[in-house]
Amino acid sequence: MTILTALNQLYDRMLAEGKAPCPSFSTEKISFELVIAANGRPLYLNDLRSHSSKKTAPRLMDVPEAVERSSNIKPNFLWDKTAYVLGVTACENTEGQIAPGQGKRTAREHAAFAASHRERLEAAKDEGLQALLRFLDLWEPEFFAQNGFSIEALDQNIVFRLEGDNGADGAPRFLHERPAVLPFLEVVKDESTALCLVTGMQAPIARLHRSVKGVMGAQSSGASLVSFNEPAYESYGKSQGANAPVSEQAAFAYGTALNCLLAKSSKHNLRVGDTTVVFWAEAATREVADFSEMLMGAAFSPPNEAAETIKLRADVQKVAEGRGGDDPEFDPDTKIYLLGLAPNAARLSVRFWHSGSFGGFARHVQRFWDDLSIEPAGWTGHPAAWSLLYETALHVDGKANADTIPPLLSGNVMRSVLTGQPLPRTLLSAVIARVRADGRVNGRRAAICKAVVNRVSMKEEISVSLDPENMNPAYRLGRLFAVLERAQEAALPNLNATIKDRYFAAASATPARIFPLLVRNANHHLSSVKKGEKVRFGHWLEKQLGMIWLGLEADMPRVLTLEDQGRFLAGYYHQRWTKSEKNENDQ
Predict the structure, then answer these.
(1) Does residue 460 form part of some domain?
(2) The dihedral of CA 578, 583, 584, 587: what is its sign?
(3) C-alpha to C-alpha distances, 37 to 125, 161, 163, 164, 170, nearest whole angstrom
């Protein structure tokens, strides 16, 4: 199933459940309502924002579909910001205070709003719509200050309400919610029809598709998933949307569904590197779909609490093994969809698209967790896919800069997780490069090396915990480097720079050139340790060196491949951070 077809079907379900706006409507941020009398006189301006938190938040409301505008003057229908609706915007007065005023184009914006509504509602007989027309005839921008309207409303979106107007449920309703408004929303944009590539039906084709908002890094005003704006992208003399004919209805449906998934209040999106991921499920019942979506979200961003981690693991395993039993929520045949989007100027690029069964998804996630298991553990709970990418980022003041994550890596990682394929070698390469740059060897980076190397070699070359029997030269050299570092620390405590800071990158790439120097220095370090207060620890280190040397050839490798550098890093981590009773007591 194609992306647009799946989103089109999702919109139909969301519409039936009341979770998406009707056709010709869109969900927008509305802050105030202007109540008008039947004669058009403005009565008062009500604040619709939420004040439950420290920062006020606009109300999300279904209003007539927002127009597409950049620098052009184009009003919305029955709502807009104060520059259009009231002809005022926030300006600074002579005393440096914010006050209602007019910018360079405010008067033209308000004139366009009034002219558009007069033309569109010319034949309106409805009391509320006639009241709006009377209001536009009466209103002057200076009335904003004369009526004592709050300056907090300036440049905010405003809707209208007729005084005393209530809906069928007895609650106050806005002007755009009156049934008489619906006929005025049906604007024929193009009388020509063509075969819609999404629905397979003959229908009017959308020239421009809806903007998609909420993708991290994209324009705040929205970006296009489907667009043609240059002759280089067009074919056979067709322009814009005619190059990929999608009906007006289908374009509205997929765009609306995608915007609902990307909304801040939605739990159906997350960020993985430079990619914004949206996901949803399709099942026989809403309860099953909700459970699948909840578990998908938890699998991508696992909890840290031990009890929740255990429960998540048990739930994923149950779905992976098809053990739903009498619990209908655990349905491994539930259909799931995942879409990864990244910004690309005014457009969106698709990083990945995956559809499959919930059972297959659970099996792949379970294997992903198993691949990354290591001791000591690199994560408090289960690893999240996004956390792998942050190990390739530049860290500034202890925080990872997501903008430095290699491009395309997030899509490759997510594709591997979702399909059960090995993690990409580019991830291993990026981790090795980051270790060389900052010298940080932690459990997450060691786990990534383990996961990539084991899946590439198709066998468990690197175990979960320290493996003294592993005879791989690179792994043993990593262990050897860890012991040499500990010997130096014991002999020369409080050094500003250890051999790890100076030689780790070179030793993991060209061991034959670096290790002879390190071993010569280690002999002096061990001699010093054994003469001091840590005699037993010095003998323990000497014994460790001997045991590791027994598994090494006389001639060390001159150069280590990328995978061998991963084995080196894992061996170093295991030897350096694995705790044993003897190790602790001897220090």
Answers:
(1) no
(2) negative
(3) 16, 9, 5, 9, 19
Per-residue confidence band for 187, with pLDDT thresholds at 50, 70 and 90: low
pLDDT of residue 186: 66
Is 346 part of any domain? no
- Read off the pLDDT of residues 516-574 as tens digits, 9 standing for 90 and up: 999 999 999 999 998 877 888 999 999 999 999 999 988 899 999 999 999 999 999 99
Q: How far apart are CA 410 and CA 413, in angstroms?
A: 5
Q: Which domain holds residue 221?
A: 1-20+188-266
Peptide bond into 75 cis (omega under 30): no
Assign 3-state DSSP to the chain and report helix, strand, coil percentages, each to 5.
45, 15, 40
Answer with the one of 159, 185, 211 that is the final residue of a domain.
185
Q: Which of 103, 514, 381 is nearest to 500 (CA)?
A: 514
Helices 535-550 and 473-491, interaxial angle, to 10°? 160
Q: Residue type at 3? A: I
Token duo for residue 386: 């996004």
pLDDT at 143: 95
Give 166's DSSP letter.
B
Nearest to 112 by CA among 81, 155, 146, 134: 81
Q: How far is CA 26 from the centre of its chain?
A: 22
Residues 544 and 491 in one domain: yes
- 228, 241 contact by CB (below 8 A): yes
pLDDT in tens, 390-422: 999 998 887 888 889 998 899 999 999 999 999
Buried b (16+ CB within 10 A) or exposed e, 559-587: ebeebbbbbbbbbbbbbbbeeeeeeeeee
Tell me: pLDDT of 325 over 60. Answer: no
DSSP assignment string, 129-164: HHHHHHHHHH--TTHHHHTT--GGGTTSEEEEEETT
CA angle 129/131/133 to nearest 5° reads 75
Q: CA-to-CA distance for 391 and 427, rounded, in angstroms?
A: 9
Q: What value does the mean pLDDT of the chain take?
A: 91
In the structure encoding, which two tokens stand for residue 89, read together? Answer: 């915007």
Task: Compute the C-alpha angle 350/352/357, nearest 5°.
Answer: 135
